[in-house]
Design a protein that fits this description.
This protein is of the alpha/beta class. The protein has a domain of 132 residues: Rossmann fold (3-Layer(aba) Sandwich). It is built from seven helices and eight strands. Helix 4 crosses helix 5 and helix 5 packs parallel to helix 6. The longest helix is centred in the last third of the chain and has 18 residues. The two termini are 14 Å apart.
């Protein structure tokens, strides 16, 4: 579990977007694991994102016209996984985040903390190797922030993925074992 901290405007989210192949670096070489992402074409980037990366956002971007279960199934269906197995995998992941009782609810019918957990479940389906979390506790109160952090740490331990968190949340950052600060274009270990 690694954090990138720093003031607003320093480029933390841009760095996350570049690592996530959603933005392009203007110079240099960027490797994520065994993948040199700066040399990938758009199709290779799409395949890399689908197979390797999960994204957790401050605004969880759950699709309002789909149930919580369908939202979590979506990354698997985009990869053309069978509907039945996608449903089973998504339901198991929702159970892991404590939302088995919300499968058929729509995003507008669940709390902000539950939406955050549904976003985590969606990010993790498909055995992702790297989870990029951009201000995951930014819209949550202290209690839900703490619960989300505990959930992420537990899932990281159980599922063995790398978690890269961009955050302003000092309480969250202080839990992270490997911390970095981005300032003036330089990333330094804290």
């Amino acid at each position: 579990i690694v954090s990138v901290e720093g003031a607003s405007g320093e480029g933390k989210s841009t760095l996350l977007n570049i690592i996530g192949t959603m933005d392009v670096a203007t110079s240099g070489t960027i490797r994520v694991g065994e993948h040199e992402i700066t040399r990938m074409n758009e199709r290779e980037k799409e395949n890399f994102r689908a197979a390797e990366l999960g994204f957790i956002f401050q605004h969880h971007y759950l699709l309002p016209d789909f149930t919580v279960l369908e939202n979590v199934m979506m990354p698997l269906l985009i990869q053309r996984a069978p509907v039945r197995s996608s449903r089973d995998v998504a339901a198991r992941m929702l159970d892991m985040v404590g939302l088995s009782h919300r499968l058929e609810h729509f995003p507008g019918q669940i709390s902000g903390g539950e939406m955050a957990r549904a976003g985590v479940a969606r990010a993790l389906v498909g055995d992702k190797k790297l989870i990029l979390a951009d201000e995951p506790t930014g819209n949550l109160d202290k209690n839900n922030s703490d619960r989300l952090a505990e959930l992420l740490w537990r899932l990281q331990s159980e599922l063995s993925f790398t978690l890269l968190i961009v955050t302003h949340d000092r309480d969250l950052a202080e839990r992270v074992p490997v911390r970095h600060r981005l300032a003036s274009g330089s990333l330094q270990r804290i």
